[in-house]
């Protein structure tokens, strides 16, 4: 007898529901959200497996890779489609969601999504880190502008290199203002140093990447090239086309 296995993934645990091809529930369980635990559960089942599915998400990609490394084929299911199908359920629990996912697999009412490679996810993490550093610097600068504006002090248009000097010039003579802005300026210096190091790492990685044609695109710097590459446009062959979305395959 072949079965369909639905996995509802949360941070700590994964709810599991196993249904037959006729829709009968034969097993319900909860395992730790770890690849080893899920692999052990699947291998101990006494049924033939038609399909295993889990809703796409950050943790789901990691579990999907772990299952694939163990030789267990699983399907990442498009998030909006799964949520749309499950939102009509009167009671929302992990166990019920796992059952809903299993039934979607049984009926074929889902769309598979592409799971990015580990290297692509690592590049995304690096780019996300750079983005957060930039946002941190901008937020600190806006905070200082707001602090000074309350006292009628306007920074105006100033270059990044002259920003600190301009702030200290405006706050000079007011001990409380100097005490307020100095820690923020010190934090800004540290963030700018870390941002410069992060951008250098990204530039170095972009220079060594085999997708050389992107380097000749006008007005595309190393950060944009890295973002395009990690976004999943290239699959193995640098010039390979994306899968046809009309066939039910999209990237996450």
Instruction: Please outline the major beta sheet.
Output: 5 strands, mixed
Stretches where pLDDT falls below 50 for ≥5 residues?
233-252
Radius of gyration: 25 Å
**Total domain count:** 2
Overall outline = elongated
Number of helices: 8
Average residue pLDDT: 85
Proportion of residues in β-strands: 15-25%
Distance from first to last alpha carbon:
33 Å
Question: Any overview of this molecule?
Answer:
Helix 2 (58-69) links the parallel strand 4 (48-55) and strand 5. The strands form 2 sheets. Strands 3-2-1-4-5 form a 5-stranded mixed beta sheet. The chain folds into 2 domains: 2-114, Nucleotidyltransferase, domain 5 (2-Layer Sandwich), CATH 3.30.420; 118-233, no CATH class. By secondary structure, the chain is of the alpha/beta class. The model is unreliable at 233-252 (pLDDT under 50). The protein has 8 helices and 7 strands, in the order βββαβαβααβααααβ. The two termini are 33 Å apart. 52% of the residues lie in helices and 15% in strands.
List keywords for this structure.
single chain, 252 residues, alpha/beta, Nucleotidyltransferase, domain 5, 2 domains, five-stranded mixed beta sheet, two-stranded parallel sheet, elongated
Structural topology:
Blueprint: E1 2-9, E2 13-20, E3 25-32, H1 35-44, E4 48-55, H2 58-69, E5 75-77, H3 79-86, H4 94-107, E6 113-114, H5 118-149, H6 163-171, H7 175-208, H8 222-233, E7 250-251
Parallel strand pairs: 1-4, 4-5, 6-7
Antiparallel strand pairs: 1-2, 2-3
């Amino acid at each position: 007898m072949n079965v369909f296995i639905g996995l509802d993934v949360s941070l700590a645990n994964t709810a599991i529901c196993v249904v037959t091809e006729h829709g009968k529930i034969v097993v319900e369980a909860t395992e730790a959200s770890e690849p080893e635990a899920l692999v052990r559960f699947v291998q101990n089942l006494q049924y033939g497996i038609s399909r295993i599915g889990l809703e796409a998400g950050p943790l789901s990609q990691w579990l999907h890779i772990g299952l694939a490394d163990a030789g267990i084929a699983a399907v990442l299911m498009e998030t909006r489609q799964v949520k749309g199908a499950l939102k009509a359920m009167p009671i929302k629990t992990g166990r019920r969601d796992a059952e809903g996912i299993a039934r979607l697999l049984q009926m074929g009412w889902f769309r598979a999504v592409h799971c990015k490679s580990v290297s692509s996810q690592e590049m995304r993490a690096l780019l996300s880190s750079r983005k957060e550093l930039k946002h941190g610097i901008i937020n600190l600068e806006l905070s200082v502008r707001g602090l000074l504006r309350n006292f009628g002090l306007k920074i105006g248009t100033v270059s990044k290199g002259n920003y600190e000097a301009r702030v200290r010039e405006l706050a000079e003579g007011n001990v409380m203002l100097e005490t307020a802005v100095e820690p923020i300026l010190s934090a800004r210096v540290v963030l700018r140093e870390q941002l410069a190091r992060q951008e250098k790492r990204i530039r170095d990685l972009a220079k060594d990447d085999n997708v050389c044609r992107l380097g000749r695109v006008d007005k595309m710097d190393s950060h944009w090239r890295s973002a395009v590459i990690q976004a999943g446009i290239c699959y193995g062959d640098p010039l390979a086309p994306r899968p046809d979305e009309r066939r039910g395959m999209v990237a996450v």
